[in-house]
Amino acid sequence: MSLAVRVIPCLDVDAGRVVKGVNFENLRDAGDPVELAHGYDAAGADELTFLDVTASSGDRETTYDVVRRTADQVFIPLTVGGGVRTADDVDLLLRAGADKVGVNTAAIARPELIEEIAERFGRQVLVLSADVRRVREGDRPTPSGFEVTTHGGRRGTGIDALEWCERAAGLGAGEILLNSMDADGTRAGFDLELIRGARARVDVPLIASGGAGAVEHFVPAVEAGADAVLAATVFHFGEFTVADVKRSLREAGHAVR
Amino acid sequence: MPSRVVVFDYGSGNLSSAQRAMERTGADVTVTSDPHAALEADGLVVPGVGAFSACMSSLRAAGGDRIIGRRVAGGRPVLGICVGMQVLFDRGVERADPRAGDQVTEGCGEWPGTVDRLRAPIVPHMGWNTVRPPADTRLFAGIGPQERFYFVHSYAVREWEFSTHNERIREPGVTWAEHGEPFVAAVENGPLCATQFHPEKSGDAGARLLANWVATL
């Protein structure tokens, strides 16, 4: 027996409500993150990720409240990302009941943030979230051909994505959420080359994200080196379930819970 | 009357999950740093996350090492979780900075042994894994061998060093798990129990384990 591949649904939360349509059966309120978290827990999710897309910082209290209510009722690990800028932000989320916190743009602007968080709370709480795309023609090339982006993939940074993953892991990131902005929304499968590239560079766990459109897409991501797979839309719309993904992983010989 | 459980708050991490998960068992749960309450409770939970050295110094500052020792001497149950299990051993060896040497921190010394970095291709060991409990386990009673628990740690007890020549001493029950190599996933030793994984985050299997522990109080 060995460590199970984790299957992680991701919910985008805006001012305490789930955005992007969610089409779950037997749900009283499809916009309530707490109820959805319950649903996914019951459906066999190994972990949950909330991506806080709340624009106004005044609504952060709502996010903490959602995290608190979820952690009170759902007994699987919960990661919360989005808008985390300081170690104090991490403290507030952990106190609210998050088990792990995702850090993205703020760490690109100030990599020392990774060290600060790891030192204060331990590296196990820190998920470095990297929004990665292939360098486009006319843009400054990077050694790996992949670059880190900000603003939801709209803005390139010129930073080599694989070098960034390696550096972040060295600074104290406990795992890396590798989000392919090219594959995101295409439903054509994960960016396997990106996963393989990152796997060759880092020895912390990797979560593959972006591009899941069919049950068959998950096994190749794991075989490329992902320790966990994350998806949003396909689960929310009930196109297939967490259990379907686990069944296909199990049939391919991978351990699942 | 429900069992009174104290989750010891000595400044190590998020305690609300441990509190809620304990409450699900029907126990009457208090989160506090009050030494008197921690001594008096029917059961004491010692959580812990982050670095061994930081955890141990907070625990000492709160008098936790002495509270654990006094409880165990009196046969009163204690449950350590994650780094809260690690600090029960003799020492922790950490390498925060690869350029620096090993940092050795003295633990509570309830059990012999060293907490050291896990030798595995992917570290931290993060996710759901199976465990191998001893035959006479109480903690894992009714939990099938296919059930999984949630782990998140980079350090572990890789060798169990307890030994005795006195046949009247009952050997602690050791549960093993594997990630790259075998390591201690749980210990059951009279009033002193501990798990490397997080039962409070381990869904139904974790709830069952906590209920089993509360049933011993």
UniProtKB/TrEMBL annotation, chain A:
The active site is at D12, D131. Keywords: Amino-acid biosynthesis, Cytoplasm, Histidine biosynthesis, Lyase. Its EC number is 4.3.2.10. Pathway: Amino-acid biosynthesis; L-histidine biosynthesis; L-histidine from 5-phospho-alpha-D-ribose 1-diphosphate: step 5/9. GO terms for molecular function: lyase activity. It is an enzyme of class 4 (lyase). SUPFAM superfamilies: Ribulose-phoshate binding barrel. Its main location: cytoplasm. InterPro entries: Aldolase_TIM (IPR013785), His_biosynth (IPR006062), HisF (IPR004651), IGPS_HisA/HisF (IPR050064), RibuloseP-bd_barrel (IPR011060). It is found in: Cytoplasm. It catalyses: 5-[(5-phospho-1-deoxy-D-ribulos-1-ylimino)methylamino]-1-(5-phospho-beta-D-ribosyl)imidazole-4-carboxamide + L-glutamine = D-erythro-1-(imidazol-4-yl)glycerol 3-phosphate + 5-amino-1-(5-phospho-beta-D-ribosyl)imidazole-4-carboxamide + L-glutamate + H(+). Pfam families: His_biosynth. Heterodimer of HisH and HisF. IGPS catalyzes the conversion of PRFAR and glutamine to IGP, AICAR and glutamate. The HisF subunit catalyzes the cyclization activity that produces IGP and AICAR from PRFAR using the ammonia provided by the HisH subunit. Belongs to the HisA/HisF family. This is Imidazole glycerol phosphate synthase subunit HisF. It comes from Nocardiopsis tropica.
Automatic annotation (TrEMBL), chain B:
Transmembrane segments: none annotated. Its main location: cytoplasm. Pathway: Amino-acid biosynthesis; L-histidine biosynthesis; L-histidine from 5-phospho-alpha-D-ribose 1-diphosphate: step 5/9. It catalyses: L-glutamine + H2O = L-glutamate + NH4(+); 5-[(5-phospho-1-deoxy-D-ribulos-1-ylimino)methylamino]-1-(5-phospho-beta-D-ribosyl)imidazole-4-carboxamide + L-glutamine = D-erythro-1-(imidazol-4-yl)glycerol 3-phosphate + 5-amino-1-(5-phospho-beta-D-ribosyl)imidazole-4-carboxamide + L-glutamate + H(+). Keywords: Amino-acid biosynthesis, Cytoplasm, Glutamine amidotransferase, Histidine biosynthesis, Hydrolase, Lyase. Residues 6-214 form the Glutamine amidotransferase domain. One of its GO terms (molecular function) is lyase activity. It is found in: Cytoplasm. Pfam families: GATase. The active site is at C82, H198, E200. Its EC number is 4.3.2.10, 3.5.1.2. The keyword Transmembrane helix does not apply. InterPro entries: Class_I_gatase-like (IPR029062), GATASE (IPR017926), Imidazole-glycPsynth_HisH (IPR010139). IGPS catalyzes the conversion of PRFAR and glutamine to IGP, AICAR and glutamate. The HisH subunit catalyzes the hydrolysis of glutamine to glutamate and ammonia as part of the synthesis of IGP and AICAR. The resulting ammonia molecule is channeled to the active site of HisF. Heterodimer of HisH and HisF. This is Imidazole glycerol phosphate synthase subunit HisH. It comes from Streptomonospora nanhaiensis. The lineage of its organism: Bacteria, Bacillati, Actinomycetota, Actinomycetes, Streptosporangiales.
